[in-house]
Protein backbone atom coordinates (compact mmCIF):
# COMPACT_ATOMS: atom_id res chain seq x y z
CA UNK A 1 0.00 0.00 0.00
CA UNK A 2 1.49 3.37 -0.95
CA UNK A 3 2.38 6.01 1.62
CA UNK A 4 1.51 9.68 1.16
CA UNK A 5 3.81 12.61 0.72
CA UNK A 6 1.96 15.85 1.45
CA UNK A 7 3.59 18.81 -0.25
CA UNK A 8 2.78 22.40 0.64
CA UNK A 9 2.07 24.02 -2.72
CA UNK A 10 1.87 27.53 -1.25
CA UNK A 11 5.39 27.70 0.19
CA UNK A 12 7.44 30.52 -1.26
CA UNK A 13 11.12 31.13 -0.84
CA UNK A 14 12.75 34.54 -0.43
CA UNK A 15 14.22 36.12 -3.56
CA UNK A 16 12.70 33.49 -5.84
CA UNK A 17 12.27 35.11 -9.26
CA UNK A 18 9.83 32.47 -10.53
CA UNK A 19 6.20 33.52 -10.86
CA UNK A 20 5.25 30.02 -9.69
CA UNK A 21 5.51 29.31 -5.97
CA UNK A 22 8.42 27.11 -4.92
CA UNK A 23 6.10 24.62 -3.23
CA UNK A 24 4.05 24.21 -6.39
CA UNK A 25 7.24 23.54 -8.36
CA UNK A 26 8.40 20.95 -5.83
CA UNK A 27 4.97 19.28 -6.00
CA UNK A 28 5.19 19.07 -9.81
CA UNK A 29 8.73 17.72 -9.66
CA UNK A 30 7.78 14.98 -7.18
CA UNK A 31 4.66 14.14 -9.12
CA UNK A 32 6.55 13.80 -12.41
CA UNK A 33 9.19 11.48 -10.96
CA UNK A 34 6.66 9.24 -9.24
CA UNK A 35 4.63 8.89 -12.42
CA UNK A 36 7.52 7.14 -14.11
CA UNK A 37 9.70 5.63 -11.38
CA UNK A 38 8.06 5.04 -8.02
CA UNK A 39 4.73 3.49 -7.19
CA UNK A 40 5.03 3.20 -3.41
CA UNK A 41 4.09 6.84 -2.83
CA UNK A 42 1.15 9.12 -3.54
CA UNK A 43 1.96 12.81 -3.89
CA UNK A 44 -0.73 15.10 -2.54
CA UNK A 45 -0.62 18.89 -2.64
CA UNK A 46 -1.90 20.81 0.37
CA UNK A 47 -2.17 24.53 1.08
CA UNK A 48 0.12 25.20 4.03
CA UNK A 49 1.47 22.80 6.63
CA UNK A 50 1.91 25.69 9.10
CA UNK A 51 5.68 25.61 8.80
CA UNK A 52 5.84 28.66 6.57
CA UNK A 53 9.22 29.82 7.88
CA UNK A 54 10.91 26.59 6.64
CA UNK A 55 9.97 26.43 2.92
CA UNK A 56 9.54 24.17 1.09
CA UNK A 57 7.75 21.81 3.45
CA UNK A 58 6.48 18.26 3.12
CA UNK A 59 5.14 15.47 5.34
CA UNK A 60 5.27 11.69 5.18
CA UNK A 61 2.16 9.95 6.47
CA UNK A 62 0.53 6.54 6.55
CA UNK A 63 -1.89 4.77 8.84
CA UNK A 64 -0.25 3.18 11.87
CA UNK A 65 3.08 4.89 11.20
CA UNK A 66 4.80 7.91 12.65
CA UNK A 67 4.17 11.07 10.64
CA UNK A 68 7.23 13.14 9.72
CA UNK A 69 7.29 16.82 8.79
CA UNK A 70 10.32 18.20 6.94
CA UNK A 71 11.29 21.61 5.64
CA UNK A 72 14.05 23.65 3.98
CA UNK A 73 13.81 21.94 0.60
CA UNK A 74 14.79 23.67 -2.60
CA UNK A 75 12.03 23.69 -5.18
CA UNK A 76 13.90 22.35 -8.16
CA UNK A 77 16.42 19.75 -6.98
CA UNK A 78 15.04 18.00 -3.88
CA UNK A 79 12.76 15.39 -5.40
CA UNK A 80 15.31 12.57 -5.59
CA UNK A 81 16.32 12.85 -1.92
CA UNK A 82 12.71 13.12 -0.76
CA UNK A 83 11.70 10.05 -2.73
CA UNK A 84 14.71 8.05 -1.54
CA UNK A 85 13.70 8.77 2.05
CA UNK A 86 10.02 8.10 1.29
CA UNK A 87 11.03 4.63 0.13
CA UNK A 88 12.72 4.00 3.51
CA UNK A 89 9.56 5.23 5.22
CA UNK A 90 7.34 3.00 3.09
CA UNK A 91 9.32 -0.07 4.04
CA UNK A 92 9.54 0.66 7.78
CA UNK A 93 6.68 -1.08 9.62
CA UNK A 94 6.28 1.74 12.14
CA UNK A 95 7.52 4.51 9.82
CA UNK A 96 10.60 5.28 11.88
CA UNK A 97 13.48 6.16 9.57
CA UNK A 98 16.97 5.70 11.05
CA UNK A 99 18.72 9.08 10.98
CA UNK A 100 21.95 7.65 9.51
CA UNK A 101 20.08 6.20 6.53
CA UNK A 102 18.32 9.42 5.55
CA UNK A 103 19.59 11.54 2.66
CA UNK A 104 21.37 14.69 3.92
CA UNK A 105 18.47 17.05 3.23
CA UNK A 106 16.22 14.93 5.42
CA UNK A 107 18.76 14.76 8.24
CA UNK A 108 18.90 18.55 8.45
CA UNK A 109 15.33 19.41 7.57
CA UNK A 110 13.34 17.38 10.07
CA UNK A 111 10.84 19.58 11.89
CA UNK A 112 8.72 17.09 13.81
CA UNK A 113 7.55 13.53 14.03
CA UNK A 114 4.14 12.67 15.41
CA UNK A 115 3.11 9.30 16.83
CA UNK A 116 0.68 7.17 14.93
CA UNK A 117 -1.73 7.30 17.87
CA UNK A 118 -2.60 10.86 16.78
CA UNK A 119 -4.23 9.35 13.70
CA UNK A 120 -7.96 9.68 14.46
CA UNK A 121 -8.72 6.20 13.16
CA UNK A 122 -6.75 4.74 16.07
CA UNK A 123 -8.20 6.88 18.87
CA UNK A 124 -10.83 5.41 21.17
CA UNK A 125 -14.32 6.76 20.37
CA UNK A 126 -14.50 8.82 23.56
CA UNK A 127 -11.49 10.89 22.44
CA UNK A 128 -12.63 11.60 18.89
S1 LIG B 1 2.99 28.18 3.12
FE1 LIG B 1 4.05 26.29 3.14
S2 LIG B 1 3.92 25.67 5.20
FE2 LIG B 1 2.74 27.48 5.14
Structural class: alpha+beta
Shape: globular
> What's the mean pLDDT score?
90
Which regions have little confidence, pLDDT < 50, spanning 5+ residues?
none
Report Rg: 15 Å
Strand arrangement in the largest pleated sheet: 2-1-3-4-5
What would you note in describing this structure?
Helix 1 (22-36) crosses helix 2. It is globular and about 40 Å long. The chain has one domain (3-127): Glutaredoxin. It is an alpha+beta fold and 128 residues long. It has helices at 22-36, 79-91, 104-108; strands at 3-8, 41-46, 58-61, 67-70, 110-114. It has a five-stranded mixed β-sheet with strand order 2-1-3-4-5. The mean pLDDT is 90. The chain has three helices and five strands, in the order E-H-E-E-E-H-H-E. A hairpin with a 5-residue loop joins strand 3 (58-61) and strand 4.
Sum up the structure in keywords.
single chain; 128 residues; alpha+beta; Glutaredoxin; 5-stranded mixed beta sheet; 20% strand; globular; binds FE2/S2 (inorganic) cluster
Summarize the entry for a quick read.
The protein contains 3 helices and 5 strands. It is an alpha+beta fold and 128 residues long. It has a single domain (3-127), classed as 3-Layer(aba) Sandwich (Glutaredoxin), CATH 3.40.30.10.
Topology:
Elements: E1 3-8, H1 22-36, E2 41-46, E3 58-61, E4 67-70, H2 79-91, H3 104-108, E5 110-114
Helix pairs in contact: 1-2
Amino acid sequence: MPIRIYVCTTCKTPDDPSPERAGARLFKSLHEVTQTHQSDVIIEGVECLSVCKRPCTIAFADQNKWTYIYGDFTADDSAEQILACASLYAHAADGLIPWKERPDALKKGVIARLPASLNSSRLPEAQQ
